[in-house]
Structures are given as structure tokens and as C-alpha cells.
Specification:
six-stranded mixed beta sheet; five-stranded antiparallel beta sheet; about 120 residues
């Protein structure tokens, strides 16, 4: 049973920054790629980013490239998406999931966590 807990969401003004966390419970992240998805109000869930188990490969959706950076600290069993230059359209619930080794297609990840709310508004 793989359990992930998202945290770090909140309210931020446009142009601001926020760092989310995806923490593992019941397993270590060393062997897992971690992906992030989000779902905005009235929209379908979309992939945001992914980082491979060793951190050597990262993927980003076109909508967040250049603004979001995903990193990991396996010693803390945590993955951190750093979100900069936030826009109102980034408002969504953000979720993480794990897959062994490398980043799969977002549809091929296992179940996503409970999510953390990010609201970008002035």
C-alpha cells in the first residue's frame, strides 16, 4: 500500500511563489518516480510534472515550463514542486502519485493522493 500526502497549498497572489510537498508513508521514495497532476474547478485533471526516481529526469506540462521546478529529497522521503510566477489559471487542487523507476504517462500512475488546494488570486 503506497501512501502519499500532499501539503503546502494555500493562497498566493499572481506572480507569487509556492512550494508543495509530496511525502511518502509506508515506503521510501528512492525507487519511485513522482508525478504531479492538478484539477481546476470545472476542468479535467491534467498532468503537471514528474521527476524520476534518481532525479535525473524531469517532465513538465507546457503550461508550467519555466515556472515550475520539481526536485526531491530522498533522505526526507519527499518531493517538492517549486512553483514560481503563479497565475490565476494555476488555481487547482494538486495531487501526487508514485511509479517505480521512471515517469510514465500520467494516465498510468496509480491512485493519486487527497490533494492540496492552491489558489492564485489578488
Amino acid at each position: 500500500q503506497l501512501q502519499l500526502v500532499e501539503s503546502g497549498g494555500g493562497l498566493v497572489q499572481p506572480g507569487g511563489s509556492l512550494r508543495l510537498s509530496c511525502a511518502a508513508s509506508g515506503f521510501t521514495l528512492d525507487y519511485y518516480a513522482i508525478g504531479w497532476s492538478r484539477q481546476a474547478p470545472g476542468k479535467e485533471r491534467e498532468g503537471v510534472s514528474c521527476i524520476s526516481s534518481k532525479g535525473g529526469s524531469t517532465n513538465y506540462a507546457d503550461s508550467v515550463k519555466g515556472r515550475f521546478t520539481i526536485s526531491r529529497d530522498n533522505a526526507k522521503n519527499t518531493v517538492y514542486p517549486q512553483m514560481n510566477s503563479l497565475k490565476p489559471e494555476d488555481t487547482a487542487v494538486y495531487y501526487c502519485a508514485a511509479e517505480i523507476g521512471y515517469c510514465p504517462a500520467f494516465a498510468d500512475f496509480g491512485s493519486w493522493g487527497q490533494g492540496t488546494q492552491v489558489t492564485v488570486s489578488s
